[in-house]
Amino acid sequence: MKVQLQNITKIFPSRNKKSKELVTAVNDFTFTVPDGKLIGLLGPSGCGKSTTLYMISGLEKPTSGKIFFGEDDVTELPPEKRGIGLVFQNYALYPHMTVRQNILFPLQNLKGEDKLTKEQMLDHVDEVTKLVQLEQYLDRKPNQMSGGQQQRVAIARALVKMPRVLLLDEPLSNLDARLRLQTREEIRRIQRETGITTIFVTHDQEEAMSISDMIVVMKLGVIQQVGEPQEVYDNPVNLFVSKFLGTPPINVFNGRISGEKLYIGEEEIASAEGKEDMDVYVGIRPEGFIVDPNGKLTCNLESREVMGRDVSIVSNHPESANPIVRSIVDSESVFDMDAQTIKYNIKKSKMFVFNKETEERVFFEGDKLPYHLTQYLEEIKSEETQTEENTQEDNA
Ligand code: ATP
Questions:
Q1: Angstrom distance (rounded) from CA 363 to CA 360
Q2: Pocket test for ligand 1, best of 8, 47, 57, 168 (most atoms within 8 A of CB)
Q3: Is the CB of 43 under 6 A from ligand 1?
Q4: Can you tell me the distance from the alpha carbon of 175 to that of 89, in angstroms, rounded to the nearest whole number?
């Protein structure tokens, strides 16, 4: 089931009752979630991810804009009529009920023509408990299970009504690191097996990147960039996106373009042919440094940490926007740890330049332009036209 959000905006009155100020939680959000895909909605706290998810679920109503599930306009429909499954951070299971009763619960509330016989209900429960691999825990109560298992019960409960769309709001936040990793792989497997269109909200970039077909990066209610996770990491459109993705984070330097050359401090880093003079930020991913005694960028060496195959070198630079510069280089890189300084060359594909004023990317000769939202929406539209044409041909 394709989910289409058309120019969705949500404005809340301030939570402070004395203030008349309005809060724009989501601003003109236009995006299409393709059928059967897992999309990660990603951004820092307060960027509007949960509000977007709640509008898709029907728990919140947009101030303006429209939401479609397939061809159905669901903007005015209440949550129970949308055919969604919702999973929250706090599993929200009924503590006095067994796992079986918890999963059965949404089916027992079905009314009218949706009503199921006891046998049908138990069949559905069987099916989803197999899917989430909880068959042997059906008679347990939630408090007799680990956090990861409880979250799987919550997922089973969301899936038991065979929803058209599965919505997950920070489902892994309450789990410890090991369970988080395990459960996110589980979610990916379940999503692949069921093929349910899924939207997954998280502030954790690693989590979103590892399981999503596509990510949508948000800031202050506005979409910043969409694309496949690797693509967004490799080709950020602005400083915010470049800083938000990647661990260890990107290194940011104050730089300038002058006389068609790019400088960090007094060191010339690269050619900037055809570019106007301007102040910039230069972002270099940790894996973008190559140790070279004749390198162009000189940093003050602080320490190094061996991490098996790689070595992480900690240094500093007067023009660095952060207290340290962290590079990750091959463990076979040769350098003198007793030296005061270390020199680097920089891999072009791992260096991004941003206009200091607008923080938007400055593209250089040979840079691939990032996959853009407009391009994405055009692709979706042309796929749809293609499908329509094929259907018409088939019908003819
Ligand atoms: P988090 O990860 O912290 O939940 P988020 O990205 O999901 O953040 P939202 O919860 O969607 O962000 O909130 C977006 C903005 O809207 C925030 O500034 C928040 O304070 C505000 N907001 C959300 N719900 C309401 C509400 N009911 N009334 C007033 N303001 C709200």
A1: 9
A2: 47
A3: yes
A4: 9
Q: Is the CB of 370 under 6 A from ligand 1?
A: no
pLDDT bracket for residue 373 (50, 70, 90): low
Range of the domain at 137: 3-234
35 occurs within a structural domain: yes
Nearest to 307 by CA among 331, 327, 326, 285: 331
| Spatial contact of 290 and 345, defined as CB atoms under 8 Å apart | yes
CB 23 less than 6 A from any atom of ligand 1: yes
Query: Any bridge partners for residue 281, and if so which?
Result: 254, 354
CB of 12 shorter than 6 A to ligand 1 = yes
Atom of ligand 1 nearest to the CA of 10: 16
**Which residues contact residue 154 at a Cβ distance below 8 angstroms, ignoring those fewer than 6 apart?**
87, 88, 91, 92, 93, 171
Q: List the beta bridge partners of residue 38.
A: 198
Question: In this structure, what are the phi and psi dihedrals at residue 77, rounded to the nearest 5 degrees?
Answer: -80, 140
What is the domain count for the chain?
2
Which pLDDT tens digit goes with each residue over 81-134? 899 999 888 878 899 999 999 999 989 887 777 788 888 889 889 988 888 888
In a domain, 178, yes or no: yes
Q: Are 164 and 267 found together in one domain?
A: no
Q: Whose CA is nearest to atom 24 of ligand 1?
A: 51
- Cβ 47 under 6 angstroms from ligand 1: yes
Cα 51 to averaged position of ligand 1 atoms, centre (Å): 6
What is the whole-number distance in angstroms between the Cα of residue 152 and the centre of ligand 1? 26
- Tell me if the bond preceding 248 is cis, omega within 30° of 0: yes
Question: Could you tell me the pTM of the whole model?
Answer: 0.89
